């Protein structure tokens, strides 16, 4: 087995996403089964880490794009920047949903309708992001998945 070839296609960002989702799934299952008695805020910590990395990455990307005016002149770079902004917007709406879910589970002070409001906004944004992505030959995997789930969610 060639380790060099194995790690040549290694994508650290996707590894972080999958590791965070796996850890979150395990912690949530353990919490729901009563094996651990952690706060839901602690159970959601892998999700918070993922969102923190997205926000930091978008901040760095915005800083680089703003400091280099030659990037704004290139057509493809502008499309990349807009795709990043769309993805961060979707992440922020999902972060708002996750925070409201944790708060609702821990304190029970919100109506579930209020908790799901960010998802009601994510659905049309995801559909619009998919259309925009297909028109600009972009791969917006998350937007496509979210728009599919939102269309299934809205079925009677």
Describe the structure.
By secondary structure, this protein is mainly alpha-helical. The protein has one domain. It has helices spanning about 5-10, 10-30, 40-45, 45-65, 70-75, 75-105, 110-115, 115-135, 140-155.
Count of all domains: 1
Radius of gyration: 18 Å
Shape descriptor: globular
Number of strands: 0
Percent of residues in beta strands: under 5%
Class by SSE composition: mainly alpha
Low-confidence stretches: 150-156
Distance, first to last CA = 51 Å
Number of separate helices? 9
What is the H/E order? HHHHHHHHH
Mean pLDDT: 82
Major beta sheet summary: none
- Report the helical percentage: over 70%
Task: List the SSEs and their pairings.
Layout: H1 3-8, H2 12-32, H3 40-43, H4 45-67, H5 69-73, H6 75-107, H7 112-115, H8 117-135, H9 141-153
Helix pairs in contact: 2-4, 4-6, 6-8, 8-9
What are the salient characteristics of this protein?
single chain, 156 residues, mainly alpha, 9 helices, disordered C terminus
Summed up:
This protein is mostly helical. It has one domain.
């Amino acid at each position: 087995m060639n380790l060099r070839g194995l790690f040549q296609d290694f994508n650290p960002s996707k590894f972080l996403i999958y590791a965070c989702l796996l850890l979150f799934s395990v912690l949530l299952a353990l919490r729901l089964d009563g094996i651990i008695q952690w706060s839901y805020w602690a159970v959601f910590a892998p999700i918070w880490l993922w969102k923190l990395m997205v926000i930091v990455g978008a901040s760095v990307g915005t800083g680089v794009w703003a400091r280099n005016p030659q990037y704004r002149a290139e057509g493809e770079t502008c499309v990349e920047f807009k795709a990043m902004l769309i993805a961060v917007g979707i992440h922020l709406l999902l972060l708002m949903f996750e925070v409201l879910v944790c708060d609702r589970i821990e304190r029970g002070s919100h109506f579930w309708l209020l908790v799901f409001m960010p998802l009601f906004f994510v659905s049309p944004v995801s559909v619009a992001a998919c259309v925009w992505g297909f028109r600009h030959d972009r791969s917006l995997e998350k937007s496509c998945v979210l728009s599919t789930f939102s269309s299934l969610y809205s079925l009677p």
